[in-house]
């Protein structure tokens, strides 16, 4: 699938062997890059867009509880709907804490706009 709407930059930003900026291979890769960028950006990290971000990196340091798990799930779902609602459809957001292993796992199932197939991304972060 070719990229739509002009040239896009890959995430993370990098320079290729030819000295030019690297672009994502297709629309699916671009949507995945945008999704990762949203989830891994902390709220208020962007000066001119302080409400942008999912804050997944900082979640591992939060106390594990059912209430917080619900808040995190809602925050991620709302962020994806607000910032990427035109690019993807969220099918599943699952947030799991493992106190014994001190890990946080976020599973996200989504479908890029115009695609019949779903994609799954999993994040796992340990506080150790």
TrEMBL record:
It holds the Pfam family GPW_gp25. SUPFAM superfamilies: gpW/gp25-like (SSF160719). It comes from Metapseudomonas furukawaii (Pseudomonas furukawaii). This is Mlr6561 protein. Residues 27-111 form the IraD/Gp25-like domain.
